[in-house]
Write a structure and sequence with these properties.
3-stranded parallel beta sheet; 95 residues; LMW_PTPase; acid phosphatase; EC 3.1.3.2
């Protein structure tokens, strides 16, 4: 039987401290609740270098905490190598 390759999704926004880490956290929770975490690689990243190394915005953290969704993330810039391209790629350009 062939080994199943995990699907991957990358959520992207400008700074990787608001929209994309929230989307990553929510999607990760949905996948975990469905017991499908072994089938997915889930990540988020920034298109810019503005916020690299920073935690998510406090408002997003507060919202996620209120809904019981864990969000442990440090902003990073997106970098691709041809063998690492995600299957799904979601971008947000307006907040």
């Amino acid at each position: 039987m062939a080994e199943q390759v995990p699907k991957s999704v990358l959520f992207v926004c400008l700074g990787n401290i608001c929209r994309s880490p929230i989307a990553e956290a929510v999607f990760r929770k949905l996948v975990t609740d469905q017991k499908l975490s072994d089938n997915w690689r889930i990540d988020s990243a920034a298109t810019s270098t503005y916020e690299i190394g920073n935690p998510p915005d406090y408002r997003g953290q507060s919202c996620m905490k209120k809904h019981g969704i864990p969000m442990n993330h440090i902003a990073r810039q997106v970098r691709f190598h041809s063998h690492q391209l995600p299957v799904l790629f979601h971008c947000w350009f307006h907040s």
